[in-house]
Amino acid sequence: RLAKMLKLMRMMRIARLMRSMPEFFILIKAISCASRATFFTLAFLCVIIYIYSIAFTQLLDGTDVGSAYFSTVPHSMSSLIFHGTFLDDISTVAYAIGAESLSCMVLFGSVVLVAAVTLMNILIGVLCEAISAVADSERMSLQVALVEETLRQILECGLDSDDDGLVSKDEFIKVLESRAAVNALQDIGIDVV
Fold first, then answer.
1. I need a labelling partner for 108 at 20 to 30 A (CA). Which of 55, 82, 124, 170 fits?
2. Who wins on pLDDT, 114 or 22?
3. 8 Å CB contact between 72 and 154
C-alpha cells in the first residue's frame, strides 16, 4: 500500500513538472503528431539503404573492402547506415572504397547525398514543422482560455444583468462603458474602440 502511494506521489511530481515546463509537453505532442511522417521517412530510408546494400554486396564481392564492410546484405546495410547515413568514420570507408573502385566511390557518395543529406534533412524539416504547428495550436488555445476567463470575470462583476452567461447588445454596451472592463480587454490585446 505504501509503494502504491509512493508511485502516485512520483506521478504527481511528473505531472507538476510537465505543467511547469509547457515546452516539454509541446515537444512530446509534436513528436506524436509527426510520428506517421517520421515512420514513412525512416521506412523510405531503409528501402534506399537496402537497394544500395544489394548493389555494394554485388559490386565489391571478393574484394578486401567487400569482405570488411559489404560481405552480406545485412552487413552492407549496417555499414551503410553507420558510415553512409550517420557518417561515422566516413573517410576511412570512403578511401577504402575509392582505392578499390572509382564507380563504387561515386555510388557511396550518392548514398551519403541521398541518405545523410537529403532524407535526414527531410526528417528534421518534418519534426520542425510539427513542433511549429503544435506550438501555434497550444499558443492559440492558451490565448482563447485567457480571453474566456477575462470575459467571464468582466461579466461576473455585474455586467451580465440576466445571468445567462451570454452577452446581449445592452450588456455589450455596458462593457464598453465600463473603464475596468475596457482596461481588462486591452490587457489581453483586444482593442475595444
1. 124
2. 114
3. no
In this predicted model, which residue has the larger pLDDT, 39 or 7?
Answer: 39
Helix axes 22-33, 120-154, angle to 10 degrees: 130
pTM for this predicted structure: 0.65
3-state secondary structure the chain: CHHHHHHHHHHHHHHHHHHHCHHHHHHHHHHHHCHHHHHHHHHHHHHHHHHHHHHHHHHCCCCHHHHHHCCCHHHHHHHHHHHHHCCCCHHHHHHHHHHHCHHHHHHHHHHHHHHHHHHHHHHHHHHHHHHHHHHHHHHHHHHHHHHHHHHHHHHHHHHCCCCCCCCCHHHHHHHHHCHHHHHHHHHCCCCCC
Query: Which whole-number Å values give the CA distances from 60 to 48, 75, 108, in the listed order?
Result: 18, 13, 12
- Three cell numbers, residue 48: 534506399
Residue for grid cell 582505392: 99
pLDDT tens by residue, 32-60: 888 888 888 889 999 999 999 999 999 99
Most confidently modeled range among 50-54, 130-134, 166-170: 50-54
> In the predicted model, what is the mean pLDDT of residues 119-136?
85
